[in-house]
Structures are given as C-alpha cells and as structure tokens.
Design a protein that fits this description.
GO terms for molecular function: polygalacturonase activity. By secondary structure, the chain is mostly beta strands. 12% of the residues lie in helices and 45% in strands. It has a 22-stranded parallel beta sheet that branches.
C-alpha cells in the first residue's frame, strides 16, 4: 500500500474515532436497521484444516465450515473465526445466521485459477451476464436467499487477486462475466463492516434483490486502471445503509442500480430508501452515481457528507433511452470535491444495451433531484444536465453550490438541455433552463 494511502487511512480512522468520542449519541447513522448480533457459538477455520501459509488451498476447509454452520443450526448462529495468516481459497458460499470474522492480519485470498471457477445463472433483471452473453462467474464470497449474515472483524482483508481477470478483460478472452468480490442475492439482515476489500475481479460489494443491508467502516481498494471495480453497488435493493468508508477503485465508488433495459423493466424491482453517508475516496470515474442500469427504478436516495479527490465526475446520475424506469427523490448534500474533471453530471445518454431487443420508446423519467451545499476546488467543468427530448428531466433543484475551476482566464460553462428546475446561489451560474426559485416558486421546499 502506498505510504500516502496508509497515512490517509490512519488519519481517516483516527478522525472517525475522534468524532465518535466527542459526539457520542449525536452522530447520525442509519446502521440501526440491522443490529449487530453476538454469536456464542464460535469455530475457527483451523478446526477444519485451514492453513494460512498463502500456498495451501483452503477451499475444502471453508466449505466444510460453512456446511457445519448450516446443518448444526446453533441457536443464535455461529461465528467462523479466521486467524492471522493468508488463506488461499476458491470461491465459497455463506449460509444464514453466521458471522465471518477476520482477525487483524487475516487475509482470505482468491485463487487465480479461473478454469475451475463456478458458473451461475445471469440475474433476471439483466437477462445475461453484464459483460458477456450467458451466465456469469459466481462471486468470490457468495450468498443467495440468506438472512442474518455478518462479515466483520479487525480490518482483515478479502483479496480477489483480480489482475488475472482484468487482463482477460483487456485481452478480450473472457468467456463469461467476471465475478464480484462479495455478492448477496435475495437476502436480508446483512452487515459488512471493519474489513478491507482488495483487487476485486469486477464489482466489489453487490447486494442485489436484498433488503436491510448495512455496509460501514470498510476500506475498498483497487488500482485506478482496474476495469469495472465499482466499490459498492446496491442493486434492486431497499433499506440500504452505506456509511463511514474509504473507497479508491477503477470505477464508480458507489453506484445505485436496478436492472438493465427490457430485463430490468420486466423484473420491476426498484432500489429504494438508500442512505450513503460519510464516504471518502478517489476514482477516474464517478464518486456517487445513480445508474446507468436503472430500469426497475430508483427512489428515495440520500447522499450526504461526501469527500471526493482526483475524480472523473463528482456526482453522476445517468440513464439512457431504452432503460425505462424512473429516478426520483434523490437528495445530495454536503459534498466536497477536489481535482475533478466534471463536478455534476445528470445525463440521459449513458451506458450500453444488453442486446438489440431494447425498446427505444422506453424512456426513463427523471424528476425530483436536489443537489445542495456542494463545494469544489480545481473542477475543470462545473456540470451538465442533459435530459431527453421526449422525456425532459424536471424538478432539478440546485442550491449553495460553488465549483471553482482550474486556474485560467475563464472557466468552462454548464451545459444544459431538456431540463427544468431552479437554482439559487450557484457559482458559476448553471444555465437559463434553471430559473431562480423566487421567480417561479419551483423547488422552494428544497431551499
């Protein structure tokens, strides 16, 4: 890990701890939607022959340990302890009522033997693998139809060793869609906390068709040139809490999704009631994103207290013709960004299609987007809001936004089209399509 990142993480950890100490009982958190559960029954991976030498393959040990938890069904569940060491393994499933606990110095490391990686069916809201036709490789750590599952510890590491997958992507030799690092499907009551996630082959943490999910105090790291290594992607999920984390990856830090074109429309499961709070990070792509796969709809998203550095786009709301669905009631507030190519982007022409069967008349509806209290330094272009001619974006409300450009004689202007709404105290001034709220009364409830 680069020394500057170590220093930053140390400061970040101390800052969070200090804040907690001086404002006990006052720090706003959504984590209470899933209470942390203590397990009286505890087993160790060493009990099943696990060897943390970084060379021994521990797949049998992990699968037998999970099998034991699943079938003994201890009251209150069971904690699987991973002691210090490097535990090489193939992918494995979790089970309900378990805690996967990584001690300080513990590393669960994915094998780079891709030939035996299990294949699973594509998600119905995507209709195919996100990258390739057909199925997809199972996530490194996977859960389907589970409840009451915790992944936590003392900042141990889950390492996907993704470079072999990234190279397959670059060389166009992938047979199926790359595996995520951690995925929960059709699950509820999930907590992921106090773990470092490294080098995911594809998306890092992917809760899909799930509810009551808490992700906090995590660190997610991947090289800035690693393809599609999104940090956290809540997808067709509800009641999701994402807080107090550091993310530096090769793609969006957090991206809210809900299905892809005609498949997402048919599946019809929105993402809703999602809170994203106190996230710090950097990426050549987006800091906080909604989309572009939003065909099931996205609503009721709160984003606040975000710090972004060396970004492609700060805040990015993105969809496309053929997506259908809706994006509504999105609030983003208290954001600081520095060294950013574009501060704010709301666009209706982003993302590809699964096949040629998408309906070009399936137009997304975007309304009720509130962005306020955003400050940026060295922002090359302040923003763009470009809706669709036959489905303009409405109720766009900007207030108290200052996006300072790079040094030079003049800054780049906003770009707007097919949009309506209001702006107040925005610098540089956005565009004529956004009127003053004192003129129209539009969005006055948000100022």
């Amino acid at each position: 890990m680069p020394s500057f990142l170590v220093s930053f993480l140390l400061v970040f950890t101390i800052s969070v701890s200090f804040l907690s100490c001086i404002t006990v009982g006052e720090v706003v958190t959504c984590s209470g939607i899933v209470p942390m559960r203590l397990r009286n029954d505890k087993i160790s991976i060493a009990d099943f022959g696990g060897v943390g030498d970084g060379k021994t393959l521990n797949t049998k040990a992990f699968r037998e340990a999970v099998y034991r938890i699943q079938h003994l069904r201890r009251r209150g569940g069971t904690l699987l302890y991973i002691p210090p060491g490097v535990y090489l393994t193939e992918s494995f499933n979790l089970t309900s009522h378990m805690t996967l606990y990584l001690a300080r110095g513990a590393v669960i490391k994915a094998t780079q033997d891709t030939g035996n990686w299990p294949l699973i069916a594509p998600l119905p809201s995507y209709g195919r693998g996100r990258e390739r036709l057909g199925g997809r490789y199972m996530s490194f750590i996977h859960g389907d139809g589970l409840q009451d599952v915790i992944i936590t510890g003392e900042n141990g590491t889950i390492d996907g060793q993704g470079d072999v997958w990234w190279n397959m992507w670059r060389q166009r030799t992938l047979l199926f869609t790359r595996p995520n690092l951690v995925e929960f499907v059709n699950s509820r009551g999930i907590i992921i906390s106090n773990v470092i996630f490294r080098n995911s082959p594809f998306w890092n943490i992917h809760p899909v068709y799930s509810r009551n999910v808490v992700i906090r105090y995590v660190t997610i790291l991947a090289p800035l040139d690693s393809p599609n290594t999104d940090g956290i992607d809540p997808d067709s999920s509800s009641n999701v809490c994402i807080e107090d984390s550091y993310i530096s990856t090769g793609d969006d830090l957090v991206a809210v999704k809900s299905g892809w074109d005609e498949y997402g429309i048919a599946y019809g499961r929105p993402s809703s009631d999602i809170t994203i709070r106190r996230i710090t990070g950097s990426s050549p792509f987006s800091g906080i994103a909604v989309g572009s796969e939003t065909s099931g709809g996205v609503k009721n998203v709160l984003v606040e207290n975000i710090n972004l550095y060396n970004m492609g786009v700060g805040i990015h709301i993105k969809t496309n013709i053929g997506r259908g669905g809706f994006i509504k009631n999105i609030t983003v507030t208290d954001v600081y960004m520095e060294n950013v190519r574009k501060g704010i982007k709301i666009a209706g022409d982003v993302g590809d299609h699964p096949d040629e069967s998408f309906n070009p008349n399936a137009l997304p509806v975007v309304y009720g987007i509130t962005l306020k209290s955003i400050w940026g330094e060295n922002v090359q272009q302040p923003g763009s809001i470009q809706g669709l001619k036959n489905s303009p974006f409405t109720g766009i409300c900007l207030s108290n936004i200052n996006l300072h450009g790079v040094p030079g004689p003049r800054s780049s202007p906003w770009k707007c089209s097919d949009v309506s709404g209001s702006a107040l105290l925005v610098s540089p001034w956005p565009c004529s399509e956004l009127t003053s709220p004192h003129q129209t009364g539009s969005c006055s409830d948000h100022f």
